[in-house]
Amino acid sequence: MMLALPLSGWAMSSAGDHPVSFFGLFTLPPLLMADEALAEIMSEVHETLAWTLIVLLVLHVGAALRHHFIVHDGTLRRMLGRAS
Ligand code: HEM
Ligand code: HEM
Question: How many other β-carbons are positioned within 10 Å of the β-carbon of residue 57?
Answer without folding.
Answer: 11
